[in-house]
């Protein structure tokens, strides 16, 4: 065992003991509701790149979440080529903490050998992973937009068919940007609406919906709500003309989105994203800051969703 790994494990153990009270503060997200929180709560683990599966599971357990949203994609926690060998290890590490991979973030947007589509999805489904976030499609702004949208339809159809056969649900995240499919929401909805929600659904991302739609985000939410497979909470601030992510509750995202979920009695998964966290998670000091941010954002989300 290397010195850095020993230091990291020692930090995680001492942090859990020394800050037991703070850790418990995150857990009432479930406990305060008597174990009846209607939503599975997970968090995106991209910023924990490089940590062991056990370390990620330990941090997730401290947060009081039900599972993780894990990047199983090129340059993610597990490369697609290694899924058959590595994904079972990750799932087992989480199970030891009573956790799951609630959402698998993939590099998949079509059925292809290059993306290892069938191997990745078959392995995930066999391990009990119920849903995966698709990768993006992008427009070529120099070409007719409508024709490109129609060209995506058969790709989605093939992917839905394979996923349906394997028993795993693809979910598509609305993103923001000048050339992203789904940035306007209406374009991808015109495809997704042709299927049952359990066959394919949206990961409705309130940050990107607000960046793109401004005050119109409730319209986009209302349009897609019947096809939500998961929802994302994350926040941002405008820095000039650029959006920069920030801690939940400190930016442009309205708590009214949480109120909308409560009004609609949304009971699906919620994923918390902390994309503003930067630095090497293998560094104990950085990891300590990450941990504090985890607990802070879970607390804000719990207040918004009236979990405690």
Kindly give the count of domains.
Answer: 1
- At the fourth level of CATH, the homologous superfamily is Divalent-metal-dependent TIM barrel enzymes
Distance between the termini: 41 Å
**In what order do the strands lie side by side in the largest sheet?**
1-2-3-4-5-6-7-10
Number of helices: 12
Strand content: 15-25%
Shape label: globular
Task: List low-confidence stretches.
Answer: 1-35
Instruction: Give the C-alpha Rg.
Output: 19 Å
> Mind summarizing the main beta sheet?
8 strands, parallel, barrel
Structural class, please?
A: alpha/beta
Question: What is the succession of H and E elements?
Answer: HHHEHEHEHEHEHEHHEEEHEH
Percent of residues in helices: 40-55%
CATH topology: TIM Barrel
CATH class: Alpha Beta
State the CATH architecture: Alpha-Beta Barrel
Short description:
This protein is an alpha/beta fold. Helices cover 44% and strands 15% of the residues.
Describe the overall structure.
The protein is of the alpha/beta class and 308 residues long. Helix content is 44%, strand content 15%. An eight-stranded parallel β-barrel has the order 1-2-3-4-5-6-7-10, surrounded by six helices. It has a two-stranded antiparallel sheet with strand order 8-9. β2, α5 (83-95) and β3 form a beta-alpha-beta unit.
Write the layout of secondary structure elements.
Elements: H1 3-18, H2 20-26, H3 28-31, E1 41-44, H4 53-63, E2 67-71, H5 83-95, E3 100-105, H6 117-126, E4 131-133, H7 145-166, E5 169-173, H8 186-192, E6 201-205, H9 206-213, H10 217-224, E7 228-233, E8 235-239, E9 242-246, H11 256-263, E10 270-272, H12 284-304
Parallel strand pairs: 1-2, 1-10, 2-3, 3-4, 4-5, 5-6, 6-7, 7-10
Antiparallel strand pairs: 8-9
Helix pairs in contact: 1-4, 2-12, 4-5, 5-6
């Amino acid at each position: 065992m290397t010195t850095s790994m020993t230091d990291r494990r020692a930090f995680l153990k001492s942090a859990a003991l020394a800050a037991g009270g703070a850790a418990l503060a995150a857990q009432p997200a479930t406990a305060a509701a008597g174990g009846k929180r209607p939503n599975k709560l997970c968090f995106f683990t991209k910023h924990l790149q490089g940590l062991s599966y056990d370390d990620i599971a330990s941090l997730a357990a401290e947060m009081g979440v039900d599972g993780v949203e894990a990047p199983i994609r090129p340059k993610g926690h597990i490369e697609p080529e290694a899924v058959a060998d590595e994904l079972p290890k990750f799932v087992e590490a989480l199970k030891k903490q009573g956790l799951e991979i609630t959402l698998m973030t993939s590099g998949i947007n079509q059925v292809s050998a290059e993306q290892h589509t069938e191997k990745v999805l078959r392995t995930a489904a066999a391990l009990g992973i119920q849903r995966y976030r698709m990768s993006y499609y992008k427009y070529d702004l120099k070409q007719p937009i409508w024709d490109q949208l129609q060209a995506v339809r058969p790709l989605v159809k093939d992917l839905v068919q394979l996923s349906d056969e394997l028993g795993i649900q693809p979910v598509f995240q609305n993103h923001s940007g000048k050339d992203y499919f789904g940035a306007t929401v209406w374009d991808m909805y015109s495809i997704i609406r042709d299927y049952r929600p359990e066959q394919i659904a949206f990961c409705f991302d309130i940050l990107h919906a607000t960046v793109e739609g401004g005050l119109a985000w409730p319209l986009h939410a209302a349009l897609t709500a019947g096809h939500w497979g998961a929802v994302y909470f994350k926040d941002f601030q405008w820095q000039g003309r650029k959006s920069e992510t920030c801690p939940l509750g400190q930016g442009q995202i309205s708590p009214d989105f949480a109120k909308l979920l409560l009004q609609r009695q949304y009971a699906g998964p919620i994923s918390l994203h902390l994309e503003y966290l930067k630095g090497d998670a293998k560094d104990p000091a950085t990891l300590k800051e990450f941990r504090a941010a985890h607990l802070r954002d879970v607390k804000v989300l719990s207040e918004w969703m009236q979990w405690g």
